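Before relying on records like the one below, remember that each one covers exactly one chain. Contacts with other chains, cofactors or solvent are not represented anywhere in the record.
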Amino acid sequence: MVITCLDLEGVLVPEIWIAFAEAANIPELKKTTRDEPDYDKLMQYRIRILKEHGLGLKEIQDVIANIDPMPGAKEFLDELRSMCQVIIISDTFTQFAQPLMKKLGWPTIFCNSLEVSENGEITGHKMRVEKSKYTTVKALQSIGFETIASGDSYNDLGMIRASKAGFLFKSTDSIKAENPDLPAYETYEELLAAIKAAM
């Protein structure tokens, strides 16, 4: 039995931190896992900038409320879920993901959680497991599933390479150049066809 594992941001919805950086007019917050492979380092950097500007969870959630899935993402997901089980494996946080999951028709998502103080300040983050995408794919395989994976960033490469088939989707030129053996697609139609062929 096949489970398709998808990244969330950059694949199904726009990058949350980029949307927030634009809304708050803080260009430094545009840095994502496409730029910084070390997620812990990236989050510490983000938390420090939020603190400097006196911004917390509520301000980010207000921006997320206005983010819509990418055009065609829900239809792609609906079609894919009619063919196989799908799990979104994301390094985002439960406090960010819920409104987006509602707009995508409540797919299953495995993600992390933020540590938030009573006044709404983000003080830290708690990863579900180390290397969560790769670890999750290996765990699914250990209980008898075959996995197909797709994502756009450095933190997706582990699950893509560990799967029986893996694809880059809407990735950067540098990541594509560094991984020339990985098929790279730009449209949901292409990705759906590739997943179908790999089943």
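Residues 100 and 106 are 8 Å apart (CA to CA).
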